[in-house]
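Q: I'm writing up a methods section and want to include an example of the input and output format. Could you take the sequence below and give the corresponding predicted structure tokens, formatted cleanly so I can copy it straight into the document?
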Amino acid sequence: MCGIAGMVGKGNVSYDLYDALTVLQHRGQDAAGMVTCDGDRLNLRKNNGLVRDVFRQHDMNQLKGNMGIAHVRYPTAGTSSSAEAQPMYVNSPFGICIAHNGNLTNADELNEDLFRSDRRHINTNSDSEVLLNVFAHELQAVSSLRTSPDEIFEAVARVHQRAVGAYAAVALITGYGILGFRDPFGIRPLIYGRRETADGAEYMMASESVVLDVLGFEVIADVRPGEAVYIESSGRVHVKQCAGTTLYSPCIFEHVYLARPDSVIDGVSVYKARLKMGDKLADKILATYPDHDIDVVIPIPDTSTTSALPLAHRLGVKYREGLIKNRYIGRTFIMPGQSQRMKSVRRKLNTIDLEFRGKNVLLVDDSIVRGTTSRQIVQMARDAGARKVYLASAAPAVRYPNVYGIDMPAASEFVADGHSVEEIADYIGADWLVYQDLDDLVECASGINPDIERFDCSIFDGDYVTGNVDESYLARIEALRNDSAKAMESSNAEIIELHNQR
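A: Here is the clean output for your methods example:
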């Protein structure tokens, strides 16, 4: 889960791209980066940290140019080293930079192929660098001295033939323009829009529609699965379907957790989908516990707030915001290690005791992954004086690893792995626990955009749409990307940073 943006403007685009990254900060808090193109010169700034910390005024002064791309990152494949912050750059052909959201499931095979057949060296563990080099190699193979839109689209078509997995990407081709493309399944989102100025039209691509809304762009369309959108530095737009076979299958977890509620992903309002999740969850609670004794519904902020309100209304009980969030603590789900997630829960949330004392409380969360955060919050509710504590999840039980760009690589770390709902409730400390049914979740996000053929629900049902994910692959990524491996990588990265500072 990362956030990407690209822009072709009539003047310097750096401040608009900075604003775009602040709007997308929820998608990644590990690193941020931006590259702009001023004629035939690239200007790059990237580092670990939040957007406001990476870009200071003197950095912004250097980022000149009428087109650029930008990225906010959280670590999935690879490490949290600043060397893997994006955008990434390769000098041949033309000078290409890329910002990528997603994860390639055949990155190891591509890496080997790039070395043996394409004679290209990959310098990091990032699959984004692999994607960049595959595109660069294919563009070099088809392009003339001065590349054309048709040649660029042919290179994207070749990328689709080689790269497997989830990828929404924006690329900057020095002196030429900005390219946005999406994998043939459309797993990760990408949208583009237009803004009229006195000097002419400007264009922006971004992970979420809220970026276009905030910056005053009118939405043109979502980039469709397998499609590429190329915007020349002059502002001329070219669109082409570059994949022979597509299956519109966006990630449903965007609607559960990842995206902002004020975004529209693939034509589906995130806010409206979450309202429906609350209604469906209430129906299940009424069917399972028709004589419930719930006194109050309290959301676990922020993502579940939208679902909790219609749930409380349908149950006919009070809705209260009894958990107050510290807005200056990052999203605990995307913190790189379990110890950091656990330390942050009580720093991030505090109870209003009068909303809990002597009451039977239903806590509502968007989803439950590892369970340790839920366990702490349930205990906080009891410490605040709750008589009984129930928990409802707006999403089904997470039982399978995510391989498409969300940091859920190890099934053994999931609280639902090998356990019944009753056993999970016992571990969390809740008096009872209710999960959303998968069919109901899919229905919440369906029906608005008839072009969507299915949703990627692999973390709930283990059905991986790209078809190349087997037990050996899952075992490999679990070994490489579980919390213990991340802790080791983080320690090694700190040692390297200290060594470099000496």
